[in-house]
TrEMBL record:
<keyword id="KW-0812">Transmembrane</keyword>
<feature type="domain" description="Gnk2-homologous">
    <location>
        <begin position="135"/>
        <end position="250"/>
    </location>
</feature>
<dbReference type="GO" id="GO:0005886">
    <property type="term" value="C:plasma membrane"/>
</dbReference>
<dbReference type="InterPro" id="IPR000719">
    <property type="entry name" value="Prot_kinase_dom"/>
</dbReference>
<keyword id="KW-0418">Kinase</keyword>
<dbReference type="Pfam" id="PF07714">
    <property type="entry name" value="PK_Tyr_Ser-Thr"/>
</dbReference>
<feature type="signal peptide">
    <location>
        <begin position="1"/>
        <end position="24"/>
    </location>
</feature>
<dbReference type="Pfam" id="PF01657">
    <property type="entry name" value="Stress-antifung"/>
</dbReference>
<keyword id="KW-1133">Transmembrane helix</keyword>
<feature type="transmembrane region" description="Helical">
    <location>
        <begin position="288"/>
        <end position="311"/>
    </location>
</feature>
<feature type="domain" description="Gnk2-homologous">
    <location>
        <begin position="26"/>
        <end position="129"/>
    </location>
</feature>
<dbReference type="InterPro" id="IPR001245">
    <property type="entry name" value="Ser-Thr/Tyr_kinase_cat_dom"/>
</dbReference>
<dbReference type="GO" id="GO:0005524">
    <property type="term" value="F:ATP binding"/>
</dbReference>
<feature type="compositionally biased region" description="Low complexity">
    <location>
        <begin position="642"/>
        <end position="657"/>
    </location>
</feature>
<dbReference type="GO" id="GO:0004674">
    <property type="term" value="F:protein serine/threonine kinase activity"/>
</dbReference>
<feature type="binding site">
    <location>
        <position position="376"/>
    </location>
    <ligand>
        <name>ATP</name>
    </ligand>
</feature>
<keyword id="KW-0472">Membrane</keyword>
Length: 657
């Protein structure tokens, strides 16, 4: 049976067998894909289908745990499912069947995947899973509300979780689960703390304790329990064990848990500390949505139809974000050994340290063939470093442009995540532009070449490449300069892929650098190509002024931010006041035109901003007339000069950062 047919069948069975259940109750709160793909129609895929079919069709799951293995050596697949200890058997089976179908859709062609719903955990891998402590990948969700009595809850929490840990580890080969409560000490009000600890029953008593303590020691001191903050509730989930505590009763009847959740503050947040490599999908929710059964069934019908159509299309058309057989071979050829990179960088010595990039340090190195490289060593404890790692690999391996930095390869070995790039000798644009001494190396001809090069690189990303990409973190620090000061856009860890006909998306989390982020993104999470256009406009104004957006200041002028100052001076007809004093007036026409283009790019309304194709045309054709810009985003009206006259649309709306 082909994979698309199998998925459609499983989804259909879920709908037919349980028409009154809501799909929301079993949706993933978190899912995570591995970093290694398998070849379609391979032995590994056949074994995976055998394993997952066994999980979804097993009707004799006792105590909420089941594991299965198929194949051997490199084609071996191990999978396990674990339901929460208080979940009824029929609910557990439904959760598992739904999880199997969903995880295949979220992680196609992956050798490892992990999913977690309110009721069950599913995990499959090409590595050893049974009788082994698998505390990674790990996911955490906590309540950002601080408790008032830190001493009281800390003492009670330590005691309660220690007791539950020991009780769970003493369980048998069928169930290792403990839940309980304890009254808070040293409080004037009657408050109770509730907790839960569970391990997979294949673990020994010692391994169960080890797994729970690994989660506790790696998460609690860093995210949940500090001298000045204790979260009012938290949970940590890994394949081999999980734990949770709350200030309300959350275990017991599934219907009670699902239908009667306590109110959760809007400030709740979620994170994925110390997760392993390559997350393809990440969902986190504070509560489970309640959907009327009929509506839930209709939604599920539509979902089944959409998934089946999508999967059948994938048989005939390659997805833009997945690797086919040829691409997989190319992908694998990019892998470097950790030992080779260690030698190339002289064991990441301080002498080879180049600076700090997003989520890690950057080092210079030289391979055995004398090729110079730059190595980004991602932090092991970075919350989102693993996402950036996969994002850069998947994106940069598909892109080739003179104004984009070239990825040579990567290394994922010995818990190390390394990205290997071409070495760009002149470092980043900000190291020259904002340095009083180094800025002399950037006359206007060079700066104008940098502006044009960045524009061409963005145009390629937005319209001309095989992918449609929004960078989301375009700034001077992410533009590298080669020997001739030609710019190369770098750091694609936060980039977002778009479909060819897609114009906008809503980001699940805020990433980027304040000052460069467009207002619609900051306020509403809306991401589009116009988000990059806004960032490019900020870059133009920085290049012209020689000053950072975050620390703009001109002697003798009122303290204003860069956008406010540029807009006011443009209204006054004194735009030259923004220009770096070291730049000669001989280029005034070209420089003032760049300021005009920059103001067009940073307009508050994203519909008013030009596309990068229009920007590139404006830069290349001096005879092309420019539109009058409207008020920029983050404009502070209190500094508008009283004698200013409008040269364009100056909306009465204003916003400040």
């Amino acid at each position: 049976m082909e994979l698309p047919t199998l998925l459609c069948l499983v989804l259909s069975l879920i709908l037919i067998s349980y028409p009154s259940k809501t799909s929301a109750q079993f949706q993933f709160l978190h899912s995570k894909c591995g970093n290694i793909t398998y070849t379609p129609n391979s032995t590994y895929q056949s074994n995976l289908k055998t394993v997952l079919n066994s999980l979804s069709s097993n009707t004799h799951i006792t105590h909420g745990y089941y594991n299965f293995t198929a194949g051997q050596n490199l084609d071996k697949v191990e999978a396990m499912v674990l339901c929460r200890g208080d979940v009824p058997e029929n609910t557990c089976q439904l959760c598992i069947r739904n999880s199997v179908a969903t995880l295949l859709v979220l992680c196609p062609n992956e050798k490892q995947a992990f999913g977690y719903t309110e009721n069950c955990i599913i995990f499959f891998s090409n590595n050893s899973t049974f009788h082994t402590v698998r505390d990674r990948p790990v996911w955490a969700l906590w309540n950002n509300e601080n408790v008032s009595n830190i001493t009281g809850i800390n003492n009670t929490l330590t005691s309660l979780m220690g007791t539950l840990q020991n009780q769970a580890s003493l369980g048998n080969s069928e169930l290792k689960y403990a839940a309980g409560k304890s009254d808070l000490t040293s409080t004037s009000t009657n408050q109770t703390l509730y907790g839960l600890v569970q391990c997979t029953p294949d673990l020994s008593r010692h391994d169960c304790v080890k797994c729970v303590q690994n989660l506790t020691f790696s998460m609690f001191p860093k995210y949940f329990v500090t001298p000045t903050f204790i979260a009012a509730g938290a949970r940590v989930i890994a394949p081999s064990c999980n734990l949770r505590y709350e200030m309300y009763s959350f275990y017991g009847s599934v219907s009670d848990v699902a239908l009667l959740p306590p109110p959760v503050p809007a400030s709740n947040r979620s994170a994925t500390p110390q997760v392993e490599i390559n997350q393809k999908s990440h969902r986190s929710h504070s509560t489970i949505a309640i959907v009327i059964p009929i509506i839930g069934s209709l939604v599920l019908i539509i979902s089944i139809a959409s998934i089946c159509i999508l999967l059948r299309r994938k048989k005939h058309k390659k997805s833009a974000t997945n690797l086919n057989k040829e691409e997989t071979e190319n992908f694998n050829s990019l892998q470097y050994s950790f030992d080779a990179i260690k030698v190339a960088t002289n064991d990441f010595s301080n002498d080879n340290y180049l600076g700090e990039g997003a989520f890690g340090a950057v080092y210079k190195g030289k391979l055995r063939d004398e090729q110079e490289i730059a190595v980004k060593r991602l932090e092991r404890n970075s919350v989102h470093g693993d996402v950036q790692f996969k994002n850069e690999i998947l994106i940069l391996t598909k892109l080739q442009h003179r104004n984009l930095v070239r990825l040579l390869g990567f290394c994922f070995e010995k818990e190390e995540m390394l990205l290997i790039y071409e070495f760009v000798i002149n470092k980043s644009l900000d190291s020259f532009l904002f340095d009083p001494i180094q800025s002399s190396s950037m006359p206007w001809e060079t700066r104008y070449r940098v502006i044009n090069g960045i524009a061409r690189g963005l145009l390629y990303l937005h319209e001309d490449s095989r992918l449609r990409i929004v960078h989301r973190d375009l700034k001077a620090g992410n533009v590298l300069l080669d020997t001739d000061f030609n710019p190369k856009i770098a750091d694609f860890g936060m980039a977002k892929l778009f479909n060819i006909d897609q114009t906008q998306a809503v980001a699940s989390r805020m990433v980027g650098t304040f000052g460069y982020m467009a207002p619609e993104y900051v306020l509403h999470g809306h991401v589009s190509r116009k988000s990059d256009v806004f960032s490019f406009g900020i870059l133009i104004l920085e290049i012209v002024s020689g000053q950072r957006i975050s620390s703009f200041k001109i002697i003798g002028e009122k303290p204003e931010n860069l956008l406010t100052f540029a807009w006011n001076k443009w209204l006054e007809g004194k735009a030259w006041n923004i220009v770096d004093p070291t730049l000669p007036s001989a280029f005034s026409t070209e420089i003032l035109r760049c300021i005009h283009i920059g103001l067009l790019c940073v307009q508050h309304n994203m519909a008013d901003r030009p596309t990068m194709s229009s920007v590139e045309l404006m830069l290349s054709s001096s005879s092309l007339s420019l539109q009058v810009p409207s008020q920029p985003a983050f404009f502070t009206r209190s500094h508008t000069p009283s004698n200013a006259t409008s040269q364009g649309n100056t909306s009465n709306q204003s916003s400040s950062r």
